[in-house]
Structure formats: structure tokens, C-alpha cells
Amino acid sequence: MPDLNQLELQHLRHLIGAHDTAYQKLNTYSSQAVDPQIKQLFTKSAQDALNTKQKLMSFLSE
Length: 62
What we know:
62 residues; mainly alpha
């Protein structure tokens, strides 16, 4: 993979931060949910956000 320029790096960091924020919020929503289906939805969405964050972070180590 080619080196990232400064603008691409800035965008990547922004996306990583946004997915981390989404992960944290969705985890909080999941812990507060009473309905099992809603809790499961938030849990899955939080995991998806974490997975995406980790994939984006892998671009920083390549």
C-alpha cells in the first residue's frame, strides 16, 4: 500500500475517532437497554463499529 499523505492521514484519524465514539456510545446504550432485542442490536452495532475501527487502524501499521 502506498504511503498516506497528510490529508489522507487526517481523514483516517477522524474516521477512527468517529468509530471509537460510536463504539463507546453503542456499548453504553446496550448496557442500559431493557428489551433483549434492542440490547442485541446495540451490542452488534458496537461490535461492528469496533471491527471497522480496527480495520482502519491497520492502515496505520502498513
